[in-house]
Automatic annotation (TrEMBL):
Family: Belongs to the short-chain dehydrogenases/reductases (SDR) family.
This protein's UniProt keywords: NAD, Oxidoreductase
PANTHER family: DEHYDROGENASES, SHORT CHAIN, ESTRADIOL 17-BETA-DEHYDROGENASE 8-RELATED
Listed PROSITE patterns: ADH_SHORT (PS00061)
Domain Ketoreductase per the UniProt entry, residue ranges: 11-192
Any Pfam family hit: adh_short_C2
NCBIfam families per record: PRK07231.1 (NF005559)
Protein name from the UniProt record: SDR family oxidoreductase
Top-rank taxon, per record: Bacteria
Length: 264
């Protein structure tokens, strides 16, 4: 029975940020669990690779090239997912970018860009999914991607942390509003995960240069487990929240962070 609770056969999932990293790992795992997965990203080649991997493993997947910061593109993609008559069962709003700058050096355009993608992009995906789920009669799971940055301050992470904190508030608020429709909304707040995004966060030349892997080594030492996370670690958290195994869970933040933060 425990294994059956993770079975997604016959369900439809939509994953943003599916071209790489956590988004790709999540798309692959949801497909492995039996879902038809609609993969969205602005990276056309990465999308093609993700869908090819799913199909090579015997799964069913579709591509939607879009910019999550464009509300119309998100709405249209979700509408295509549910037409002809169908329903959306799972939304995994994972797309995001990393930005680092001291508060005193943060430009308005930097903050706007991060908020557009990391918060508004999640809002647009959640809103489109919730509307589709309600129109189909209710039920479904929405999973947002927060961050360990919401639990502590860190130099340079004003834009990123603020956007992710907004995602947490969105998650909790939406959970209260759509719960009566049988829709669950939860967030995953990862610690440091080895992905192309965090790899690009490392600088190896110019101002503030440090050896590649420097931050990863620090984060690994901070973890009681002595390591940083992998995309699959987070994908499994998303699968849990997307599946019937978490049918009594909503408005919560799941923190797969290796024990770096242990909030009450």
């Amino acid at each position: 029975m425990a294994v059956k609770a993770y079975d997604l056969i016959g369900r439809t999932a939509f994953v943003t940020g599916a071209a790489s990293g956590i988004g790709r790992a999540t798309a692959l795992l949801l497909a492995e669990a039996g879902a038809t997965v609609h993969c969205a990203d602005r990276d056309a080649q990465g999308l093609h690779e993700t869908v090819s991997l799913i199909k090579a493993a015997g799964g069913d997947a579709h591509t939607h090239r879009l910019d999550v910061a464009n509300r119309e593109q998100v709405d249209q993609a979700v509408a295509r997912t549910t037409t002809p008559p169908g329903r959306l069962d799972i939304m995994a709003a994972i797309a995001g970018i990393m930005h680092s700058s001291p508060v005193l050096e943060t430009r308005d355009e930097d903050l706007d860009r991060v908020l557009d993608i990391n918060f508004k992009g999640v809002l647009y995906a959640c809103r489109a999914a919730a509307r589709a789920m309600i129109e189909a009669g209710g039920g479904g799971s929405i999973v947002t991607m927060a961050s360990g940055a919401v639990d502590t301050g860190a130099p340079g992470l004003l834009c990123y942390g603020a956007a992710k904190a907004a995602v947490v508030q969105l998650t909790k608020t939406l959970a209260t509003e759509v719960g009566p429709h049988g829709i669950r909304v939860n967030a995953v707040a990862p610690g440091w995960i080895r992905t192309p995004m965090t790899d690009h966060h490392e600088t190896t030349e110019g101002h503030g240069a440090r050896p590649r892997g420097h931050t990863e080594e620090i984060m690994a030492r901070m973890s009681p487990l002595g390591r940083v996370g992998e995309p699959d670690d987070i994908a499994h958290a998303v699968l849990h929240l997307a599946s019937d195994a978490s049918s009594f869970t909503t408005g919560q933040i799941l923190r797969p962070n290796g024990g770096v933060a242990m909030p009450w």
